[in-house]
Amino acid sequence: MKTWILLALMLPLAGCTVTAEPERETLPEYDLTDMDRDGVITARDNCLDTPDKASVDNDGCQGNENQVLQQDIIVLFAHDKSNITPKYRDEINRMATFMEKNPELKLLLEGHASQVGTPEYNLALSKRRAQAVRQALMKEGVPGERLEIIGYGESKPLLMGDDEQSAAANRRVVGALTNMREGVRMRWNVYSMENASDQ
Length: 199
Description:
Layout: H1 2-14, H2 65-70, E1 74-76, H3 89-101, E2 105-111, H4 119-139, E3 147-151, H5 164-170, E4 172-179, E5 183-187, H6 193-196
Parallel strand pairs: 2-3
Antiparallel strand pairs: 1-4, 2-4, 4-5
Helix pairs in contact: 3-4
């Protein structure tokens, strides 16, 4: 009797077959390939032809890229003025020297204005400011074809507000260093409260 009970219990199980699921290939969620094997993934590598074992920065570039990224220029202006005050002479000289040492670079000078006055007037004023910085750099030996200007008027304020400190911050020209082969490398928007307080 016990044998029959045991067989009765085993018969339903005999018809069941257990099939193992085929193994699925696990794909990475992000592309982490490094084409030139410099330690920087291809997706964010700006220099894909880096020589083997070269020392590179966070963008995958070697050489003096760090020097390029550290160089900046900013010139602040008085209300409704486009003339450069003497205290920015060192700033102009420093950029001119840097451009001389890096002939592959161009500089885009971006002029800005505060929101005092009409948008049309401020646009023209911002262009005059950028042109003034361009002329000063040319006077120090930088070829004009390596210096471009653009005026933004009041459309890109650095600080919002109607107070004098905000207005002083927005009356500026900043530089965007450009590599002739690779396009814009870094746009600068450096600002110091100490510089603006006496404008």
